[in-house]
Amino acid sequence: MSAPTAEELQKEGLRLFQEGLYDEAARRFGEALEHFAEEGHEAEAGEMLNNIGIIRRKQSRWDDALASIEEAHRIFERAGDKSRAAQALGNMGSIYASLKRQEEAIEAWRAAATVFEEIGDRQKQGDTLMALGLSLFKSGRRQEGLAAYHAGLQIVDKPTASQKLHRMLLAVQARVLG
Structural domains in the chain? Predict the structure, then answer.
């Protein structure tokens, strides 16, 4: 029986992650990372680091999560993969917010939203602007937060049920306030 490929290890890691078996998933992603790196697939190796960072975030292992995602971001930047680099920035923003490092979270989300706008990914840009808006609002910058959240809400192509309700309420508010 031959050794599993990087892609097979990645799929196994995703399955384990979905089952909530985080340490096992991180191990598979780590094995896939080694294979991708050996094969010269830098962006895919970065994706495995990003996945490990997400797992560590779910486990509240903040330092490990941040280290993995920062390294993934460096790899994506080096590889010229703007979409994945922006996703990593968004993940860093979430970790910073969990660590109550609001200014760093805001900076990361702003940078991610800018890149998503540049590459034309409206859904991720909108989602990122809404996360930014909530963070700004929670940090006491209410007007700025509402503006960012509203902008993100208007951009997303596939709003959730809650987002559709918010859109409707904002439209009613605009009509009433004229």
Answer: 1-80 (1.25.40.10)
The whole-angstrom separation of Cα 148 and Cα 126 is 9
Please state the length of the chain: 178
Query: What contacts 102, CB < 8 A, 6 or more positions away?
Result: 96, 135, 138, 139
Give yes or no for a contact between 22 and 55, defined as CB atoms under 8 angstroms apart.
yes
Q: Return per-residue pLDDT of the chain as tens, 178 residues.
A: 788 999 999 999 999 999 999 999 999 999 999 999 999 999 999 999 999 999 999 999 999 999 999 999 999 999 999 999 999 999 999 999 999 999 999 999 999 999 999 999 999 999 999 999 988 988 899 889 888 988 998 898 887 787 777 767 766 666 676 6
C-alpha distances in Å from residue 52, one per residue of 20, 65, 146, 159, 175: 13, 7, 32, 28, 46
Whether residue 69 contacts residue 50, with contact meaning beta carbons closer than 8 Å, is answered with yes
CA distances from 94 to 78, 91, 112, 124, 136 (A): 22, 5, 12, 14, 13
- Beta-strand runs (E) in 43-123: none
